[in-house]
Amino acid sequence: MQANQDRDALASERTLLAAERTFSAWIRTGLAGVGGGLAVARALVFQSYVHQVAAHIVSGLLVIWGASIFFYAIAGYRRTCAKLAQEGLPENSLGALMLMTAVLLIVAMLVFWITLQ
C-alpha cells in the first residue's frame, strides 16, 4: 500500500516538473518574440517613412505575440496545477512563477516603449 502511494506521489511530482518545463519553454518562446520585435524596431533602419512604419508595426506585432504567449503559458500552467491540486499534490510555486512572468512582461513592455522613443 505504501509503495503505491509513493509511486503516485512521484508520478504527480514528475507531472509538475513536466508542467514547469513546458511553462519555461513557452516563456522562452515569448521572449524570443519580444526580442525579435525589439530587434526589428531598433536594428533595422530604413530611409523610407513607409518602411519605418512597417518595421514598427511588425515589431509591435512581435512584442504583442510574445506577450500573449506569456499569458498562454500562465493559463496552461495554472490549469495543470489545478488538476494536480485536486489529486492532493501540495502547493507549488504558481505564485512565484506568475510574479516572475508579470515582472518579465512589464520589463519587456518598458524596453519596447523605450526602444520606440
From TrEMBL:
Transmembrane parts of this sequence: 25-46, 53-74, 94-116
Keyword annotations of the record: Membrane, Transmembrane, Transmembrane helix
KW Membrane (keyword) present: yes
Predominant location: membrane
Every DUF202 domain range: 14-80
Cell compartments where the protein resides: Endomembrane system
GO cellular component: endomembrane system
Pfam families referenced in this protein's UniProt entry, alphabetically: DUF202
The protein's name: DUF202 domain-containing protein
